[in-house]
Amino acid sequence: MTARLSLIGGSSHAGKSTLGEVVANYLGCRCISTDSLAKHPGRPWRDPPELPPPHVVEHYRDLALDQMMQSVLAHYRSMWSPLVLPLIESGERLVLEGSALLPELVSQLDIQHVRAIWLVAAEGVLERRITAESDYESRDPDARFLIDKFAQRAVAFNRFVGEEASRLSLQKIEVGRETLVNELLQLCLEEPK
Protein backbone atom coordinates (compact mmCIF):
# COMPACT_ATOMS: atom_id res chain seq x y z
CA MET A 1 0.00 0.00 0.00
CA THR A 2 1.87 3.06 -1.22
CA ALA A 3 -0.98 5.42 -0.37
CA ARG A 4 -0.33 8.50 1.69
CA LEU A 5 -3.81 8.15 3.13
CA SER A 6 -5.60 4.91 3.94
CA LEU A 7 -9.36 4.98 4.54
CA ILE A 8 -11.09 2.03 6.20
CA GLY A 9 -14.88 2.14 6.36
CA GLY A 10 -17.60 -0.27 7.38
CA SER A 11 -20.14 -1.03 10.06
CA SER A 12 -19.66 -1.11 13.80
CA HIS A 13 -17.95 -4.35 14.88
CA ALA A 14 -16.63 -5.14 11.38
CA GLY A 15 -13.03 -4.70 12.61
CA LYS A 16 -12.18 -1.20 11.32
CA SER A 17 -10.48 0.03 14.49
CA THR A 18 -8.38 -3.08 14.95
CA LEU A 19 -7.33 -3.12 11.30
CA GLY A 20 -6.73 0.63 11.28
CA GLU A 21 -4.27 0.38 14.16
CA VAL A 22 -2.47 -2.57 12.56
CA VAL A 23 -2.18 -0.79 9.19
CA ALA A 24 -1.01 2.43 10.88
CA ASN A 25 1.63 0.55 12.88
CA TYR A 26 2.81 -1.23 9.73
CA LEU A 27 3.05 2.05 7.80
CA GLY A 28 4.48 4.00 10.74
CA CYS A 29 1.77 6.63 10.81
CA ARG A 30 -1.12 7.83 12.92
CA CYS A 31 -4.59 6.24 13.01
CA ILE A 32 -7.63 8.42 13.62
CA SER A 33 -11.15 7.14 14.17
CA THR A 34 -14.06 9.19 12.87
CA ASP A 35 -15.80 8.22 16.12
CA SER A 36 -13.39 10.55 17.91
CA LEU A 37 -14.64 13.49 15.82
CA ALA A 38 -18.36 13.40 16.68
CA LYS A 39 -20.57 10.87 18.41
CA HIS A 40 -23.88 9.48 17.23
CA PRO A 41 -25.77 7.30 19.72
CA GLY A 42 -23.37 4.41 19.80
CA ARG A 43 -23.35 1.23 21.79
CA PRO A 44 -26.32 1.02 24.17
CA TRP A 45 -24.40 -0.81 26.86
CA ARG A 46 -21.85 0.10 29.47
CA ASP A 47 -19.98 -1.91 32.03
CA PRO A 48 -22.30 -2.60 34.99
CA PRO A 49 -23.58 -0.89 36.98
CA GLU A 50 -23.40 2.16 34.66
CA LEU A 51 -26.43 2.73 32.44
CA PRO A 52 -26.21 4.20 28.94
CA PRO A 53 -27.12 7.89 28.69
CA PRO A 54 -30.87 8.60 28.40
CA HIS A 55 -30.58 9.90 24.80
CA VAL A 56 -28.96 6.60 23.75
CA VAL A 57 -31.72 4.58 25.45
CA GLU A 58 -34.40 6.73 23.79
CA HIS A 59 -32.76 6.42 20.37
CA TYR A 60 -32.78 2.63 20.31
CA ARG A 61 -36.01 2.21 22.25
CA ASP A 62 -38.12 4.63 20.21
CA LEU A 63 -36.85 4.57 16.61
CA ALA A 64 -37.72 2.00 13.96
CA LEU A 65 -34.88 0.52 11.90
CA ASP A 66 -35.40 2.82 8.91
CA GLN A 67 -35.42 5.85 11.24
CA MET A 68 -32.19 4.70 12.91
CA MET A 69 -30.58 4.31 9.47
CA GLN A 70 -31.76 7.75 8.34
CA SER A 71 -30.43 9.25 11.57
CA VAL A 72 -26.99 7.67 11.38
CA LEU A 73 -26.57 8.44 7.66
CA ALA A 74 -27.58 12.07 8.22
CA HIS A 75 -25.07 12.29 11.07
CA TYR A 76 -22.21 10.87 8.96
CA ARG A 77 -23.04 13.13 6.01
CA SER A 78 -23.11 16.17 8.30
CA MET A 79 -19.62 15.28 9.60
CA TRP A 80 -18.02 15.05 6.15
CA SER A 81 -17.20 18.65 5.17
CA PRO A 82 -16.42 20.19 8.55
CA LEU A 83 -14.64 17.27 10.24
CA VAL A 84 -13.60 14.41 7.95
CA LEU A 85 -12.65 16.15 4.72
CA PRO A 86 -10.10 18.50 6.38
CA LEU A 87 -8.22 15.45 7.70
CA ILE A 88 -8.25 13.86 4.27
CA GLU A 89 -7.04 17.05 2.61
CA SER A 90 -4.41 17.82 5.29
CA GLY A 91 -1.62 16.07 3.41
CA GLU A 92 -0.67 14.13 6.53
CA ARG A 93 0.20 10.48 6.05
CA LEU A 94 -2.39 8.66 8.13
CA VAL A 95 -4.96 5.92 8.44
CA LEU A 96 -8.51 7.18 8.90
CA GLU A 97 -11.07 4.61 9.94
CA GLY A 98 -14.74 4.75 10.81
CA SER A 99 -18.32 4.26 9.78
CA ALA A 100 -18.53 7.92 8.72
CA LEU A 101 -16.43 7.05 5.64
CA LEU A 102 -19.47 6.48 3.45
CA PRO A 103 -18.73 5.11 -0.03
CA GLU A 104 -20.83 7.86 -1.66
CA LEU A 105 -18.67 10.57 -0.07
CA VAL A 106 -15.29 8.92 -0.55
CA SER A 107 -16.08 8.22 -4.22
CA GLN A 108 -16.21 11.99 -4.83
CA LEU A 109 -12.63 12.53 -3.68
CA ASP A 110 -10.12 13.72 -6.26
CA ILE A 111 -6.97 13.21 -4.22
CA GLN A 112 -3.97 11.20 -5.33
CA HIS A 113 -2.45 8.48 -3.21
CA VAL A 114 -5.63 7.58 -1.32
CA ARG A 115 -6.45 3.93 -0.69
CA ALA A 116 -9.98 3.21 0.49
CA ILE A 117 -11.51 -0.10 1.52
CA TRP A 118 -14.70 -1.12 3.25
CA LEU A 119 -14.96 -4.07 5.60
CA VAL A 120 -18.21 -5.93 5.02
CA ALA A 121 -19.06 -8.60 7.56
CA ALA A 122 -20.40 -11.99 6.50
CA GLU A 123 -23.80 -13.04 7.77
CA GLY A 124 -23.93 -13.54 11.53
CA VAL A 125 -20.50 -12.03 12.26
CA LEU A 126 -21.74 -8.69 13.62
CA GLU A 127 -24.42 -10.27 15.78
CA ARG A 128 -21.89 -12.67 17.34
CA ARG A 129 -19.39 -9.90 18.03
CA ILE A 130 -22.03 -7.58 19.49
CA THR A 131 -23.45 -10.34 21.69
CA ALA A 132 -19.99 -11.18 23.01
CA GLU A 133 -18.83 -7.60 23.60
CA SER A 134 -22.06 -6.52 25.28
CA ASP A 135 -22.13 -9.54 27.61
CA TYR A 136 -25.65 -10.02 26.28
CA GLU A 137 -26.51 -13.11 28.34
CA SER A 138 -25.97 -11.27 31.63
CA ARG A 139 -28.18 -8.31 30.67
CA ASP A 140 -31.79 -7.74 31.69
CA PRO A 141 -34.61 -7.82 29.08
CA ASP A 142 -34.65 -4.03 28.63
CA ALA A 143 -30.91 -3.93 27.97
CA ARG A 144 -31.17 -6.88 25.57
CA PHE A 145 -33.88 -5.06 23.63
CA LEU A 146 -31.57 -2.07 23.13
CA ILE A 147 -28.66 -4.32 22.14
CA ASP A 148 -30.89 -6.15 19.65
CA LYS A 149 -31.88 -2.83 18.06
CA PHE A 150 -28.23 -1.77 17.86
CA ALA A 151 -27.39 -5.10 16.18
CA GLN A 152 -30.23 -4.64 13.68
CA ARG A 153 -28.89 -1.22 12.75
CA ALA A 154 -25.33 -2.56 12.45
CA VAL A 155 -26.49 -5.33 10.10
CA ALA A 156 -28.55 -2.88 8.02
CA PHE A 157 -25.61 -0.46 7.82
CA ASN A 158 -23.29 -3.33 6.86
CA ARG A 159 -25.64 -4.27 4.00
CA PHE A 160 -25.91 -0.61 2.92
CA VAL A 161 -22.12 -0.14 2.86
CA GLY A 162 -21.59 -3.38 0.91
CA GLU A 163 -24.21 -2.45 -1.68
CA GLU A 164 -22.87 1.10 -2.04
CA ALA A 165 -19.27 -0.05 -2.41
CA SER A 166 -20.38 -2.49 -5.14
CA ARG A 167 -22.53 0.11 -6.90
CA LEU A 168 -19.62 2.58 -6.97
CA SER A 169 -17.02 -0.08 -7.87
CA LEU A 170 -15.06 0.51 -4.66
CA GLN A 171 -12.95 -2.10 -2.92
CA LYS A 172 -14.58 -4.10 -0.18
CA ILE A 173 -13.23 -6.98 1.86
CA GLU A 174 -15.53 -9.58 3.37
CA VAL A 175 -14.84 -10.30 7.01
CA GLY A 176 -15.78 -13.79 8.12
CA ARG A 177 -16.09 -15.34 11.53
CA GLU A 178 -12.53 -16.69 11.40
CA THR A 179 -10.86 -13.85 9.48
CA LEU A 180 -7.58 -12.89 11.12
CA VAL A 181 -6.31 -9.33 11.25
CA ASN A 182 -3.06 -10.35 9.53
CA GLU A 183 -5.10 -11.66 6.59
CA LEU A 184 -6.87 -8.31 6.38
CA LEU A 185 -3.55 -6.47 6.56
CA GLN A 186 -2.25 -8.48 3.59
CA LEU A 187 -5.42 -7.71 1.61
CA CYS A 188 -4.99 -4.01 2.42
CA LEU A 189 -1.40 -4.06 1.23
CA GLU A 190 -2.24 -5.74 -2.09
CA GLU A 191 -2.86 -3.49 -5.02
CA PRO A 192 -6.56 -3.40 -5.98
CA LYS A 193 -7.54 -5.54 -8.94
From TrEMBL:
<protein>
    <submittedName>
        <fullName>Uncharacterized protein</fullName>
    </submittedName>
</protein>
<dbReference type="InterPro" id="IPR027417">
    <property type="entry name" value="P-loop_NTPase"/>
</dbReference>
